[in-house]
Amino acid sequence: MFDELLDPHDDEIPWGEDFEGEEVAQGTEGWDTDEGFVPDEKEKLKSYMELVGHWAIAED
């Protein structure tokens, strides 16, 4: 108990997967979709739009 670190090392931070099956760190900005998680990165967004086959920009 006393020998445990309060903050985990970077290599112990939990990871998830995006819609392409690639690892992403928990807390990464993005959107959950039917196909999976889409990180807020230009190349990932482009790949996702090509996958679903249509472009849409929606604002609340």
From TrEMBL:
Residues 13-23 have a biased composition (Acidic residues). It comes from the Bacteria. Residues 1-12 have a biased composition (Basic and acidic residues). Residues 1-37 are annotated as: Disordered. This is Uncharacterized protein. It comes from Weissella confusa (Lactobacillus confusus). The lineage of its organism: Bacteria, Bacillati, Bacillota, Bacilli, Lactobacillales.
